[in-house]
Specification:
heterodimer; A: 544 residues; D-Maltodextrin-Binding Protein, domain 2; four-stranded antiparallel sheet; B: 337 residues; mainly alpha
Chain lengths: 544, 337
C-alpha cells in the first residue's frame, strides 16, 4: 500500500514535470516567435520579395533570365528606359538622342551628372566598353548587340552607334537591362575585358557574383545561390534615391510557400503566385491585383522532325490548331485568368492589333485532316519540360491538348522531361509536338520574329526541321521584317501585322495562353507594377 | 587501434578515386544536354553562343580528356566550377554543407535522444500503455514520409499556431551572422548575437524534429529490443538483487550494453541524413547539400554532381570508421584489426 502511494506520487511528479517542461517550452517558443515578429516589424527599411530565382549569373554581360532582369535593372543603368505604359521610351542615362533617316546611326547624349556607385562619372567610354563586352561575350544576351558595326565616342558624353542595317527597334533593345552600363575601370581591375576574345579571356564573372559596378539605384550587398540576393540602396545615386534601404529577394520555390510568406508578413511581395493560389489568400493585409502580361505559353509542331508517322503538312498543322480548345485550356490551367493570343507576339506589341483570335472548331479540324488524307488518325510524340511556368503547369496543359487532339483521332504520347533532356531531344531528331514559353526582353516585335518566324537561321525554323523539310520556310517573313525595321510608327506596325499573319499561317507556333500576372503584395507596399523590360522596377518600390 | 584507424584513413583516397571515376562517367552518360544551365533556351540554336559555351566549360574536349583534367584539378583541391551557380563547387559545398550539418546534428540529437529515451521507456514498461504509446509514436515517425510530416507540422506550428517560424534558416530580414562555421546557431553565439541565435534555433526546431523523427523510430525500436534482451541477463538480475535503484539498473547496467548494436545505426543514420536530407531541405527551403545535389542532378551540372558524390562518399567512409571505433570503445571485447 505504502509502495503504491510512493509510485502514484512519483507518477504525479513525473507528469507534473513533463507538463511544466512543455509549458516552459511553449512559452519559450511563443517568446521566440515574438522576437521574430518584432524583428519583421522593426525592419521597415527592408523589403522582402519571395521568388523562385532563376539567376544564371550576376555578370551583366552573361546573365539572361527573368530574375536577372530585376537584378540588372536595379544595379545597372541603361541609356533609355521604358515608361510605365510599357510602350514609351524615356530618357535615363541619355538625356536625348538623334536617329539618322535610314535608322542605321543612333547618337546619344549622356547626362553629365550621371555617376557610378563609387562616385566616378558615367562616360561614353563606359557605354562603348559595356556594349562591346556584351557583344564579344557570345553569351545569352549578346544578340542585343547584333548588327552593331561601330561605337564611336567623339567626347566623354556622346555615343554614336552604327548598325549594318536599319533597325527601328534598336532604341527598344536598349531598354533591356542587359544593355546596362558597367563601370569599365572597376570591372577591368577584376578581369573583365571587351576584346573580341572576351568569351574566353574575361574572368570577371566570379567577381560579379559578389560585387557590382553599376550606377543604378541599388548595389549588390550579398548573394547566396538558391538562398537569397541582397541589394542595398546606392546612396551615391545621382537621380532620385530609392525609397527602401534594402531589398532581399528570398528563394521561395512554389506559389503556396510564397503565399504563406506573404500572409505571415515574412515577405512583402510574392512574385509567382498563380491565380488558383491567389484565390486562397484571405489575409486583409495582402493586396492582389491581376494584370495582363506579355508572357505566353505555346505549343509547337515540327514538320521536319525525324521519324514522323505522317507528313505534318500545313493542312495537318492547321487542323491541330483548330482541334485545341483554347478557352477550355485557359480555364483548366489558370482558372480562366489568361488571355487568348493570336500570334507568338504578345498582345499589345507592335502589329498585334486586330489579329484573328485562335478558334476551336473540331468539325473544321476533321475536314482538314480528311483533305490531307489522314482522317483515320495517327500518333505523335510530345516531349516538353516538366515545369510550371507563369502559373501554367505544362503537364496539365498538354494533357488537355492530348484530350482535344484525341477527338480528331490524333493520339499524343506525352513525355514530360527535365529541361536538359528536352534540349537534347529538340537539338537531336527534333520533337513532333512540344510546349514551351516566352517572356519579352524589351518592348518590340522584332525579337519574336527573329525567334519564331520561319526565316532561315531563326531558332524555330531550325527546331521545326527546316533542314529536313525546306518547305517550312516562309521567305515573305524575312522581307517583311527588313521593311518593318526600316520603317517607323504606323508603317512599322503595319509590317509587323503582316508578319504576324504570316506566322499564324505557318502553323508551327500555336500560342495557347497568355497568363495574367498576379501582383501580390502587402498593403504597406507601394509602387508594385509589371514592366515589359524589367519585370519589377525596384526603384519605384516603397514601404508606407 | 591507432594503426587500424591510420590504415582505414590511408585506404580512403583509393576508395574515393573509385567513387569519383564511377560518378564522373555515370553523370556524363546520363541523357540530357548539360548546356541547359549555361546557354539559355532561346540561344540554344545559336551556333556561336553554343560553341563559345562548350569551349568555356571544357565540353568540347573528349571525355577521357575531361576526366584527366578533372583528376588533375582534384589533386590540387579544385572541384571545378558549377555550371549553374558559376562558383567553385568547393565554395558552393562550403556554403551548403554547414547548413546540412547543422540540421543533421540537431536531427540526430532529437532522433537519438528521444529514440533512446523512448526505447528504454518501452522496454521498461513492456506491454503497458507507455510501451504501446512509445512504439506508436516511433512507428509514425518511421512510417510517415518526411515531405508529408514536414508540410503538416509547418502548417500547424507556423501557419496556424504561429509558434514557430516558417521556412528558411533565418527570417528574410535578418542578415546571416558573420561566417565562422557556417552554422547560424553557432556563428550567432560566437558573434554574441542572442536574437539571431534564438531566431536560428527557432527555424531549426521543426526541420530537425521532422528529420529526427524518422531516425527516432528506428533507434527506439532497436533500443527496446536490445534492452529487453539485456534486462533478462544475470548481471542485471544481480544488480537488482543487490538493491540498485531501478533508474541505475536501466541506465548504468542495461542501457550501456544495449546501446552497442544501436551505435551502428546511429553512425549510418548520420551519414544517411547528410546525403538524404533533401526532402526536408526542400520543404523547409533549407539551402543545404541535399537540395544542392538535386538541383545539380536536374541540370546535369557535372562538376557539382561529382563534388557532392565525393562529399557523400566521404561522409559514409568517415561514419563507418567512427562507428567501428565507437563499437570497440563501447565493448572492449571487440578487437579492431
Amino acid at each position: 500500500m505504502g509502495g503504491g502511494i510512493v509510485k502514484k506520487t512519483r507518477r504525479m511528479a513525473l507528469t507534473g514535470s513533463v507538463f511544466a517542461v512543455a509549458l516552459a517550452a511553449g512559452g519559450w517558443l511563443a517568446q521566440t516567435g515574438g522576437i521574430i515578429a518584432s524583428a519583421e516589424a522593426a525592419g521597415s527599411d527592408t523589403l522582402v520579395i519571395a521568388r523562385d530565382m532563376d539567376l544564371d549569373s550576376l555578370d551583366p554581360a552573361r546573365a539572361f533570365c527573368d530574375t536577372c532582369q530585376i537584378y540588372i535593372s536595379s544595379v545597372y543603368q541603361r541609356l533609355v528606359d521604358l515608361a510605365p505604359d510599357n510602350k514609351t521610351i524615356v530618357p535615363a542615362l541619355a538625356t536625348k538622342w538623334e536617329i539618322n533617316a535610314d535608322q542605321t546611326q543612333f547618337t546619344f547624349h549622356l547626362d553629365p551628372k550621371a555617376t557610378f556607385s563609387d562616385g566616378s562619372p558615367v562616360e561614353a567610354k563606359d557605354v562603348k566598353w559595356s556594349w562591346l563586352r556584351l557583344k564579344h561575350m557570345k553569351s545569352g544576351p549578346s544578340f542585343m548587340m547584333d548588327g552593331v558595326t561601330a561605337i564611336e565616342t567623339p567626347d566623354a558624353h556622346t555615343v554614336v552607334v552604327k548598325l549594318d542595317a536599319p533597325n527601328s527597334e534598336f532604341l527598344g533593345v536598349l531598354t533591356a537591362p542587359y544593355t546596362g552600363v558597367t563601370n569599365s575601370d572597376v570591372a577591368m581591375q577584376h578581369g573583365a575585358n571587351d576584346s573580341d576574345k572576351a568569351d574566353s579571356t574575361d574572368t570577371a564573372e566570379s567577381w560579379f557574383l559578389q560585387n557590382s559596378a553599376g550606377g543604378g539605384p541599388f548595389v549588390l550587398e550579398s548573394y547566396r545561390p538558391n538562398d537569397e540576393l541582397r541589394l542595398k540602396r546606392n546612396d551615391n545615386y545621382w537621380g532620385k534615391k530609392a525609397a527602401v534601404g534594402e531589398i532581399v529577394i528570398k528563394q521561395t520555390k512554389d506559389a503556396v510557400s510564397q503565399a504563406q510568406m506573404l500572409e505571415s508578413g515574412a515577405a512583402d511581395i510574392a512574385m509567382q503566385i498563380d491565380p488558383d493560389t491567389a484565390k486562397n489568400i484571405s489575409s486583409g493585409d495582402v493586396v492582389i491585383k491581376t494584370v495582363p502580361s506579355f508572357n505566353f505559353v505555346y505549343v509547337a509542331v515540327s514538320p521536319g522532325a525525324k521519324n514522323l508517322p505522317v507528313k505534318l503538312t500545313p493542312k495537318v498543322r492547321e487542323a491541330i490548331g483548330y482541334a485545341i480548345d483554347y478557352e477550355g485550356t485557359i480555364n483548366l490551367t489558370l482558372g480562366g485568368d489568361g488571355n487568348l493570343q493570336p500570334a507568338p507576339i504578345p498582345n499589345g506589341f507592335p502589329g498585334t492589333d486586330n489579329l484573328p483570335m485562335p478558334v476551336h472548331d473540331v468539325a473544321k479540324a476533321e475536314a482538314l485532316l480528311k483533305e490531307a488524307g489522314v482522317a483515320d488518325g495517327f500518333t505523335l510524340d510530345a516531349y516538353f519540360p516538366n515545369i510550371n511556368v507563369y502559373g501554367v503547369d505544362l503537364s496539365t496543359m498538354m494533357q488537355k491538348v492530348q484530350q482535344d487532339l484525341s477527338k480528331v483521332k490524333i493520339k499524343l504520347n506525352l513525355n514530360p522531361v527535365t529541361f536538359s533532356v528536352w534540349r537534347e531531344h529538340i537539338n537531336g531528331d527534333g520533337i513532333p509536338v512540344t510546349a514551351v514559353f516566352y517572356a519579352p526582353d524589351y518592348y518590340g516585335s522584332g525579337q519574336y520574329v527573329q525567334y519564331f518566324a520561319m526565316m532561315k537561321g531563326t531558332a524555330w525554323s531550325k527546331r521545326a526541321g527546316a533542314a529536313n523539310d525546306p518547305s517550312v520556310l516562309n521567305p515573305k517573313e524575312g522581307d517583311l521584317l527588313a521593311k518593318a525595321l526600316a520603317a517607323s510608327g504606323d508603317k512599322r506596325d503595319g509590317y509587323f501585322h503582316e508578319i504576324a499573319l504570316e506566322i499564324i499561317k505557318d502553323r508551327v507556333i500555336i500560342p495557347v495562353v497568355s497568363p495574367q500576372l498576379v501582383l501580390a503584395y502587402r498593403k504597406n507596399v507601394e509602387g508594385v507594377r509589371y514592366s515589359a523590360c524589367c519585370n519589377l522596377p525596384t526603384a519605384e518600390l516603397s514601404l508606407k | 587501434m591507432q594503426q587500424y584507424i591510420l590504415r582505414r584513413l590511408l585506404m580512403m583516397p583509393l576508395l574515393l578515386l573509385g567513387v569519383v571515376t564511377v560518378a564522373f562517367f555515370l553523370s556524363h552518360v546520363t541523357k540530357g544536354d548539360p548546356l541547359s544551365s549555361v546557354v539559355s533556351e532561346r540561344q540554344m540554336n545559336n551556333k556561336v553562343v553554343v560553341e563559345a559555351a562548350r569551349k568555356r566549360w571544357g565540353l568540347d574536349r573528349s571525355l577521357p580528356d575531361q576526366y584527366r583534367i578533372y583528376l588533375g584539378n582534384l589533386v590540387t583541391g579544385d572541384l571545378g566550377t558549377s555550371f549553374r551557380t558559376k562558383r567553385g563547387v568547393g565554395e558552393d559545398i562550403a556554403d551548403r554543407l554547414p547548413a546540412t550539418l547543422e540540421l543533421v546534428v540537431a536531427a540526430m540529437i532529437v532522433g537519438t535522444g528521444c529514440g533512446i529515451g523512448l526505447g528504454v521507456l518501452a522496454a521498461h514498461k513492456r506491454n503497458e500503455a507507455a510501451d504501446h504509446g512509445a512504439r506508436f509514436f516511433a512507428l509514425i515517425g518511421s512510417s510517415i514520409p518526411v515531405f508529408w510530416s514536414g508540410l503538416i507540422l509547418l502548417y500547424l506550428f507556423s501557419v496556424q499556431l504561429g509558434w514557430l517560424p516558417g521556412a528558411g534558416r533565418l527570417d528574410a530580414r535578418t542578415a546571416a551572422p558573420p561566417f565562422v562555421t557556417g552554422m547560424f546557431t553557432v556563428d550567432a553565439l560566437i558573434a554574441g548575437d542572442l536574437q539571431t541565435f534564438l531566431q536560428a534555433l527557432g527555424h531549426l526546431i521543426l526541420p530537425a524534429f521532422v528529420l529526427g523523427w524518422a531516425v527516432m523510430g528506428i533507434i527506439s525500436r532497436l533500443v527496446r529490443a536490445s534492452m529487453l534482451d539485456v534486462l533478462n541477463q544475470d548481471y542485471v538480475l544481480t544488480a537488482r538483487a543487490k538493491g540498485a535503484a531501478e533508474l541505475r539498473v536501466l541506465l548504468h547496467h542495461a542501457l550501456r550494453n544495449a546501446l552497442i548494436p544501436t551505435l551502428t545505426i546511429i553512425g549510418y543514420s548520420f551519414a544517411y541524413l547528410i546525403t538524404g536530407a533533401v526532402l526536408t531541405e526542400a520543404i523547409f527551403s533549407w539551402p543545404g547539400i541535399g537540395s544542392y545535389a538535386v538541383e545539380s542532378a536536374r541540370a546535369l551540372d557535372y562538376p557539382a554532381i561529382v563534388g557532392v558524390t565525393i562529399i557523400g562518399a566521404l561522409a559514409f567512409l568517415l561514419a563507418n570508421l567512427v562507428t567501428d571505433v565507437a563499437y570497440a570503445l563501447a565493448n572492449p571485447k571487440i578487437k579492431l584489426g
